[in-house]
Design goal:
This protein is an alpha/beta fold and 452 residues long. It contains 16 helices and 13 strands.
Amino acid sequence: MFVDTIAAVSTAMGEAGIGIVRVSGPEAIDIVRKVFRAKNPERFAKGLGYRLYYGQVVEPDSGSSIDEVLVSIMRGPNSFTGEDVVEINCHGGLIAQRDILALLLRLGAQLAEPGEFTKRAFLNGRLDLAQAEAVIDLIRAKTSLGASSALEQLRGRLSRETAACRNALLEVLAQIEAGIDFPEEDLDLDSSEVLTEKLRGILSRIQELLKGSKRGKILRDGLSTAIIGWPNVGKSSLLNAFLGEERAIVTDIPGTTRDVLEEYISIKGIPLKLIDTAGIRTTEDIVERLGVDRALQALEKADLVMFVVEAGRSLTSDEKKLLHGISQERLVIVVNKIDLDPDWRPPVDGPTFYVSALERRGINELEDGIIELASGKQSAESAVVSNIRHINSLEGSAAKVRDAVNSLRDKVPPDLVSIDVRAAWELLGEITGETVGEDLLHEIFSRFCIGK
């Protein structure tokens, strides 16, 4: 239970129809009562929750009105933070929100730290840590699919699946430690095999969660996609075809693109950052050479590389060398200008798509291929894991379960096996916050915006 009351503006600053100032804590209702003059004071005096009260926020000393507002009361523990929460719905814009917040702070509220409302929801048991982190993922979602993934996590899907694995590990741990506490009931071969099968089942469930991590990271962070190739193969035309507009300058002169051009698009709900780069070639032009260097840097950092070649033109040895240096997992070969030579095939291996950027032929097939190659096929039954902290915990837990399985196979003493099983159980607990320290909590919630 917190003794202080916090307040903050919960909507983005700027011109808007509505702004919300949120207050949470034991004195939330009393502090707001000092500045709110309800149109129906008798009704507001009852302080009933889950209602909207119309009135004015006034300066208590002078009685001058600051803004016309609607006030909502949500009493704990049935509120977002688990405490008494009051939200003042005022007019949007800098002045009204700022003045109302300043008034609340003057009357005893403390300015909320970044993410403090959600942190209180976690510490008061309203959300677990995975659900709390889903709040910021939902706010920052770039596409509807990313938002849906965050919403599933906020509803507790990942938490439930993690809890099931933890409970299964706890049963295994209890059985092992019973054998340690009662050595006369030695762990025989049959029970060792039973434990091994249980651990393998748990490992399979963790690995199923990890299968969705690649897609989850893409849904959350987007896919950085570099368009790479030699000059005049149609890289900028391809970018324009994706965007459906003439964003990049296109000419017949090689080396037109001198710098990196970035644009964001959404393909079937997946956010893509398309990076159009300068044509890669040896050049004496200082500016073009800088563009080539940046193109190579983009190639190194990209999650996916669209290597564009021109239909009908033989690949140079330098092109083949560069192609062979790109890992197959992140390579898509795009044969452009098939309107000029529709039957031409490149003498290289890899996922290949045939397009005419000028005529916008083959673009839909290329988009489908990018999504399938980037995210793979994910079962609808599996939770989508997008948070790198969760992925690390799952991977660490899986490694400890494998160690425990190997130890049972090698007939390692039970007390050593239990160490690995307990470590796996604790690592899964980090996801929901059951086994995390204060430093990690502070680091996580500091990423949130003030007011959330």
